[in-house]
Amino acid sequence: MGVNGITLNNMKHINIILLSVIICIGGVFFFTINKITYESKKSEVKEKAREAFVEALNQEFESRNFRSYPLYTFDTKSTLTANIPDSVCVQD
Hints:
Helices cover about 60% and strands about 0% of the residues. The protein is mainly alpha-helical. The protein has a domain at about 5-65. The longest helix has about 55 residues, at about 10-65. The chain is rod-shaped, with a radius of gyration of 29 Å. It starts with 7 loop residues before the first helix and ends in a 29-residue tail after the last helix.
C-alpha cells in the first residue's frame, strides 16, 4: 500500500490519464491556432489574387489601346465575396 491508499500501479494510470488529457488539450489548441492562421493567410491571398486580376485586365485594355473604358467598371471592394473566373477572354 502506498500513501493514502494510492498504490504505485494507480499512480501510473493517473499519470497516463493526465498525459492523455494534456495531449488532447494541446492538440485542440494547436488545431485552433493553425485554423486561424490559415484563414488569415487565405484572405490575404484572395485579396492579392483579385488585385492581380484587375491589374492584368487593365494591362490587357491598355495593350489594345482602350483609352476610355465604356463598358468596364470594376470595384474590388464589392467583389470580395463574388466568384471571379481565373481567365478572361476580351473580344474586340
